[in-house]
Amino acid sequence: MAPLSRDTLRDTVIDAILAVAPEADIDALPAGRPWREALEIDSFDFLNILVDLEKRLGVGVPESDYHELETLEGLLDYLERRLAA
């Protein structure tokens, strides 16, 4: 897979979130705020989003790394690192 731009990666993450939680208001997500809290994503939906991202990107996220995914920027940073590895 060719490297994804940050914008393309962000669009992929947003698509995965909206596939699970179509009512999520991504535009209202404040920078630096935990995205799960801001979008009212429960743990089941969170896991479904991660499964969707694994299908789309081929990147699995072990439970021990969940703390790195608190903000949308943190999630994007994590995925960029994993895709570059």
TrEMBL record:
SUPFAM superfamilies: ACP-like. Residues 7-83 form the Carrier domain. Pfam families: PP-binding. It comes from the Bacteria. The lineage of its organism: Bacteria, Pseudomonadati, Pseudomonadota, Gammaproteobacteria, Oceanospirillales. This is Acyl carrier protein. Coiled coil: none annotated. InterPro entries: ACP-like_sf, PP-bd_ACP.
